[in-house]
Amino acid sequence: MDKKCTGCGALLQHYNDALEGYIDETKYETATICERCFRIRNYGDYKCIIKDNNTFINIIKKIDSKDLVVLVMDLFNLPENLNVFTENIKNPILLVLTKRDILPKIIYEERLLEYVNNYKLNYKDKIIVSSNKNYNFDNLLDKINEYKTSDKVHVVGFTNAGKSTLINKLLYNYSDNVVNITTSMLPSTTLNSIEIKFSDNMTIIDTPGLLQEGSIEDYIDVKTLKKIVPKKEIRPITYQVKTQQWIYVEDLLKLNLKDNNITMFISNQLDVCRLFKNKENPELNEIEIKVKKNEDLVITGLGFIKFTKDETIKVSVLKGVKVFTRKSLV
């Protein structure tokens, strides 16, 4: 009989240690999690498993139309668009905005809730939560119970949006089920759907995360990834630029500005410096982009920068990393 890893959803197998779901044959009968999940949980030893978005899309296309879908979005790393969800999900949607504890407290929640209306997503309701702070989970569970029309609730979203962490918190707070889904800051931790019996009338289904196109996490090593993912509330960094200057974020980002006031929202574990001369970095790819007053420049997976004046700037990032502008979040 096939067995699934309760941590990542992969089918357990003992034939090939290079493939997902591997477990030593001697442990197969009693194992509940695969070797990869065991090493992530106990040693922080991450083994990359390559998945493409077709896997995710095929899963959400098969969701029964009457089931509730909980769409989880990371407030710090909001995507450019939600086309993949609007094109493939016709279910009732509850929008859950996670990681409230990462953005500064001075940002009003009403503004954040209003901001996501720009996505033109047809949802039943929306709510802001923080799994780390156990914030607003009573209200979240109330909304899930209010909008679900069957006993199945599917949790979907981009990688690292906090889906599995959110489910673990719901289980810890309100369920007798002791299942613990494997979580990490690294992409594709959940590899297949995981069904968890939450109560007599609810089964929560965790799904693999959708890979975000052009995310910096796909072009850096694990050590650097641990630095760019904020672990606590961000302290914004503001610069007043009156002459030509270069702003550097380690070897990940370079901005060339002439006249602007900017505020950077990135992990405070990263080193940021301002210089009055250019420093070449052949690993960075330079592009020219026009940013308008009260727009954000978004570096996918790294953070965002608010501009207070119109300016055509030069931004250099690792090749493949996506940069775009949007209406200012803050």
Task: Describe the protein in words.
With 330 residues, the protein is α+β, with helices and mostly antiparallel strands. It has seven helices and 16 strands. Strands 3-2-1-4-6-5 form a six-stranded mixed beta sheet, with helices on one face. It has a five-stranded antiparallel beta sheet with strand order 7-10-14-13-16, with no helix packed on it. It has a five-stranded antiparallel beta sheet with strand order 11-8-9-15-12, with no helix packed on it. The chain is globular and about 65 Å long.
Pick out its properties:
330 residues; six-stranded mixed β-sheet; five-stranded antiparallel β-sheet; 7 helices; 28% strand
The major beta sheet can be summarized as: 6 strands, mixed
Succession of helices and strands: HHEHEHEHEHEEHEEEEEEEEEE
Distance between the termini: 52 Å
Average predicted local confidence, pLDDT: 90
Q: What fraction, in percent, of the residue positions are helical?
A: 10-25%
| Strand element count | 16
Number of helices: 7
Strand order of the largest sheet: 3-2-1-4-6-5
Q: In one word, what is the shape?
A: globular
The amount of beta strand, in percent, is 25-35%
Rg is 21 Å
Provide the low-confidence segments as ranges: none
Task: Give a brief rundown of this model.
The protein has 330 residues and is α+β, with helices and mostly antiparallel strands.
